[in-house]
Amino acid sequence: MDATLSSEATARAPKRTTKDCRSRPGALIWFFRKSRDLWKGKHQALKASFKQLKNKVADLTKSREQWRLKAEQANDQLGALKAKFDNLQARVEALTSEKKNDQASTPLRFDATEQQIPCGQQYPVDVVQRFVSLVLDMGASLRCAAGALELFNPPSSPEENSPVWSTGRLWLLRVGLAALLRPKVMAEDWVWMVDHSIQIGQCKCLVILGIRLSDFTIGRPLCHQDMELIDLVPMKNATKQTVAVCLEDAVSKTGVPRAILSDHGADLHGATETFRQEHPETDEFYDIKHKAACLLKARLEKDPRWKQFATLSGQTKFATQQTELACLVPPSQQTKARFMNLGDLVKWGRQTLALLDDPSPLRRLRPPDPGTGRVAGRTSYLLAETGFERSLSERTR
């Protein structure tokens, strides 16, 4: 309806002619030419922008194809390298097992490669390996290892010489540095053991040892060969904040541990609690030896019978050493961690009581048996002091 009315109104409207236009033809021509030039410029600008975008899309498409080809080639190379690595690893394992079998029969035989002197070194590989093995595997001291090498592997010429103990110490330090810096396996079953080393001057080291639960052997105690050195941090001021920072840094080497074992020192326990706030999946365990020592300390430290027993055992040591009863000298009491080392003292007390009950072993002493009187006189407090050691042995059975 509206369209019909509009068309009828247009038909009835008078037609305008050039005589009705008041603008000059020249002005109209200039205006329309300017408008045409403006629209022509906009069209050309849009055309140029469209062409740039089209070229950019083409370049990106071409670059994407090139990177796709490179990724496929890299994937193929990675598969080939993995296969080569597995093959080499199998060969290394085979050679290692074969070498172990050879060393089992002839442990001091080395091939030509091991007898070569590395660049920048003075001694061949086999000498270094023998020295390190004597210390780490056989438990020899540094001077003992140097003397053993000089005794069983003397120099073949006057110009040659055997390594001294300080040289071997440098080799061991390098082995320890390599164990510290070598990459660790990232896993979720690590258990950390955290403690401080003995303080030297103003500095002590925070030691973080680790073992994976998959490598833990049930039925035997842990040894040094089972542990992995995770971190070793020297520090002068050990607080829970500084220790917590070290624990966070160690996460980058093994991942978040499953558990942390410590002696519940103020700094270690506080740092572990701070660490567990960020990693709640980690558990904290109290070292059983320190826990037992704390329980013994709480039970025995204020006991007057124990104090008298410890005092008189120290007096017995001074009374019997450098005498014919030196075999009865009690063990020295530790000044630090005393309640962690009570086993030897309690064992000595029980054995001495057994000797007082049956003094027949004293007949084997040379010079002749001085009699049980002197033994009883020097150790009479064991029987006189209300049988404390006997009651302690009965409680610990």
Gist?
The chain has 397 residues and is of the alpha/beta class. The chain has 13 helices and 5 strands. It folds into 3 domains: 100-182; 190-286, 2-Layer Sandwich (Nucleotidyltransferase, domain 5), CATH 3.30.420; 296-395, no CATH class.
Range of helix content: 55-70%
Identify the overall geometry.
elongated
Q: What is the gyration radius calculated from CA atoms? A: 44 Å
Number of domains: 3
Walk across the major sheet and give the strand order.
3-2-1-4-5
Architecture overview:
This protein is α/β, with parallel strands linked by helices and 397 residues long. The chain has three domains: 100-182; 190-286, Ribonuclease H-like superfamily/Ribonuclease H (Nucleotidyltransferase, domain 5); 296-395, no CATH class. The protein has 13 helices and five strands. It has helices spanning 2-12, 25-105, 125-136, 142-152, 165-181, 240-254, 266-278, 288-300, 304-320, 343-357, 372-378, 381-384, 388-395, and strands at residues 190-196, 204-212, 228-235, 259-262, 283-286. A five-stranded mixed sheet has the order 3-2-1-4-5. Strand 4, helix 7 (266-278) and strand 5 form a beta-alpha-beta unit. Helix 3 crosses helix 4, helix 4 (142-152) packs across helix 5 and helix 10 (343-357) packs across helix 13 (388-395). The longest helix is centred in the N-terminal third of the chain and has 81 residues, at 25-105. It is elongated. The N and C termini lie far apart (115 Å).
